[in-house]
TrEMBL record:
<dbReference type="GO" id="GO:0046983">
    <property type="term" value="F:protein dimerization activity"/>
</dbReference>
<dbReference type="Pfam" id="PF00891">
    <property type="entry name" value="Methyltransf_2"/>
</dbReference>
<dbReference type="InterPro" id="IPR036388">
    <property type="entry name" value="WH-like_DNA-bd_sf"/>
</dbReference>
<dbReference type="InterPro" id="IPR016461">
    <property type="entry name" value="COMT-like"/>
</dbReference>
<keyword id="KW-0949">S-adenosyl-L-methionine</keyword>
<dbReference type="Pfam" id="PF08100">
    <property type="entry name" value="Dimerisation"/>
</dbReference>
<dbReference type="InterPro" id="IPR001077">
    <property type="entry name" value="COMT_C"/>
</dbReference>
<protein>
    <submittedName>
        <fullName>Acetylserotonin O-methyltransferase</fullName>
    </submittedName>
</protein>
<keyword id="KW-0808">Transferase</keyword>
<dbReference type="InterPro" id="IPR012967">
    <property type="entry name" value="COMT_dimerisation"/>
</dbReference>
<dbReference type="InterPro" id="IPR029063">
    <property type="entry name" value="SAM-dependent_MTases_sf"/>
</dbReference>
<comment type="subunit">
    <text>Homodimer.</text>
</comment>
<feature type="domain" description="O-methyltransferase dimerisation">
    <location>
        <begin position="24"/>
        <end position="105"/>
    </location>
</feature>
<dbReference type="GO" id="GO:0032259">
    <property type="term" value="P:methylation"/>
</dbReference>
<keyword id="KW-0489">Methyltransferase</keyword>
<feature type="active site" description="Proton acceptor">
    <location>
        <position position="266"/>
    </location>
</feature>
<dbReference type="InterPro" id="IPR036390">
    <property type="entry name" value="WH_DNA-bd_sf"/>
</dbReference>
Amino acid sequence: MAEHPETTLTQGTPPADTYPRKILEYLEGFLISKTVFTSCELGVFDVLHTAGRPLSAKDVSKAIGASLDGTERLLAACAGLQLLQTHCDDGQVFYSNSDEASIYLIRSSPSSLLQSIQYRSETIYTCWQYLTDAVREGRNQYEKAFGVSSKDLFEALYRCDEEMVKFMQLMNSIWNICGKDVVKAFDLSPFKVICDLGGCSGALAKQCTSVYPECTVTIFDLPRVVRMSREHFVSEADLRINFQQGDFFKDTLPEADLYVLARILHDWTDERCIELLNRVYGACKPGGAVLVVEALLYEDGSGPVTAQLYSLNMLVQTEGKERTAAQYAALMSAAGFTNIQHRLTGKIYDAVLGHKED
Ligand SMILES: C[S@@+](CC[C@H](N)C(=O)[O-])C[C@H]1O[C@@H](n2cnc3c(N)ncnc32)[C@H](O)[C@@H]1O
């Protein structure tokens, strides 16, 4: 006898055909992103942090210079999203930051995501308005979104200094959270001379030198990025980290035992990846290696959903895509690397290590 569908449901859960919970949540996912973006832009979490005590909506509205009605709704939504805690006193509601908001959503925290939130809000969100066009055309959408040519990808990404700094802050922010896992995924202690190709402002390099105190890291990046890193990001105190400017597709690469390519290959087509890996192989000392750090897709492409969504983001914003460990291994082995292994970290970014034989 066929089972009655309702008998298999947990009591109180409506059947999927009468209440499409998941789909409704997906359709309105952007409401959540925008609520967080706006709260950060207006400085809600910073105001509550500075106050050091729970505040009413009226206090917050004054401090952020916004309407009382709008602020009340914004704070209520943040409380619903568990980013704020509520305290009732004498019939009035007061708000304070949740533990997570205190760590990640205030400007002065060492693990602040605020600057990366600004890039998501102003740049990525704008690009994603053109996702349909990106899927139809199979290409990034800088021309429509920002009116700039994307013939040179990083000229488009760095279309002005302000945009470049925001991008660099986005790149920086994740390595405070996931950097240690990535550099510890393999024992990198045998590699004393490391080159972080496209290492941006050095956030991952800092994680490397803190885990492996005996190594030195040369960050190789475009001249504009190196200049900006020196002006805005780098403490010259760490003598184990230095910068070299150049184009990794054209210029001589620094000699190293280990080349780190973190979130580099996902920007480029397979052909460009092999071109770059060939150059890395040529520069690498025998016995050396290349460490590719990326958000790996499962081998059958069925997840993780973060990597699947990032791959769409790569379509909208770059010339590349996210790949599986086997796809990265194929690119690395096409360039000559052998003994290629990968390690999952359980967080967003994973590691693939390939060796150059002695
Ligand atoms: C997606 S970001 C990754 C940054 C960093 N590795 C990380 O994971 O945070 C790509 C980096 O490659 C650099 N880059 C792009 N094209 C380059 C080139 N032709 N030569 C050197 N660096 C380049 C960019 O400036 C940027 O810092």
